[in-house]
Amino acid sequence: MRRFSEWLRHRPFAVDCALAVSLFLIELTAVAAVQQPLVYVAMAVAVSTPIAWRRRYPVAAAWTALALGQVATLMVWASEEPRTLPPGQLGFVVMLYTLAVYTDRRTTLLFALGLAADIVVVRLVLGSDWTSTIFFVLLYALAYITAEFLGTRRAYVAEVSARLAVAESDRDRRAVEAVSAERTRIARELHDVVAHAVSVMIVQADGASYALRSDPDRAAAALANISATGRTALTELRRTVSLLRTDESSESHPEYGTAALAKIVELMRAAGLRVSIEQTGELDDLPPAVSLGVHRLVQESLTNVLRHGGERPRAVVAVRREPSAVTVSVINSSDDTGPAVDIHTDAAAPTTGGFGVIGMRERVAVLGGELRAGPLPDGRWRVAATLPLELKAALGVDQDHPDR
């Protein structure tokens, strides 16, 4: 049974076809009460068929069914049984529910007005009784309320899931940054240990070579110092290297570019942030250090806009590659009254663990770039950074391992 339900879940068109057949069979129960059964069956087929495409083309299917329903009403009026309800009334209930779930409220309300007109036509032209009229009005209301409830619930679940994904991504990013900072500290310690030990050993070796014949005792003492220094350095080296052992050495360094930026934007949009992005120039062949810097700046800025940008925040991102540098601009605003909130203030850092302007400026400074953050004349807030493309010659940055 579970496998069958999974099979149906991945084949919505088959489910809709089965629903259309079911409604058609229900309509056939009224064939015995009409004078022209073949005509009634043909109308029932015509009105039920659009239901099969209700999820693929909801708007077109709904209005097609309603138009065919009007034709059916005129055909019943012209027949010998003018008081018989035309087929398709139950199908209209399904179509109203479908529009409420899969489209916007404006489209749904327009279709509801069409249904109201259909009720009036059926009531005036065919002279249907009030019992059937009230029955279908209640069905329409129940379908709309049910769809609104389910749609709201789905939207809530989707937004919560998106925000959880943003929080998880932000948590992983901060964990990576913490590990990177720790690895940098260990690398500095490793450099200090090795450089100090090797320097001492070189000086002692030179002294021993000079005193080898003239002062053998002094040369022996120098060799002893070299041995002791080497053993001490080896112990420190083993301790430090043990902290660097990780499985990441077997994995390739992640690449960042237009696809990664598009993924960030998509993730933020799903979480409720209205963001637009403009990418100019070739961004997929940037040096890894620069590409990582662009990725982190956009990610951090959009995360801060989502957190502190008001009830309906929006952001505009522009990434432009120039001949010698890459410029990044993130501008935030809000539909709330007043200017945009300074979402990059460092005051929140102690409590929220935020990165802030200081952290972004440090990252940009490591890459030899420049960062500017502040309000614009119209009240919006902008973070702008310029990252040079030539790093090794100027700064000695390891472009193959930009996190180190």
TrEMBL record:
It catalyses: ATP + protein L-histidine = ADP + protein N-phospho-L-histidine. The chain crosses the membrane at residues 12-31, 84-102, 109-126, 132-151. Keywords: ATP-binding, Kinase, Membrane, Nucleotide-binding, Phosphoprotein, Transferase, Transmembrane, Transmembrane helix, Two-component regulatory system. It holds the Pfam family DUF7134. Gene3D superfamilies: 1.20.5.1930, Histidine kinase-like ATPase, C-terminal domain. It comes from the Bacteria. Residues 5-144 form the DUF7134 domain. One of its GO terms (molecular function) is kinase activity. InterPro entries: DUF7134, HATPase_C_sf, Sensor_HK_TwoCompSys, Sig_transdc_His_kin_sub3_dim/P. Residues 182-248 form the Signal transduction histidine kinase subgroup 3 dimerisation and phosphoacceptor domain. It is an enzyme of class 2 (transferase). Its EC number is 2.7.13.3. This is histidine kinase. It comes from Rhodococcoides corynebacterioides. The lineage of its organism: Bacteria, Bacillati, Actinomycetota, Actinomycetes, Mycobacteriales.
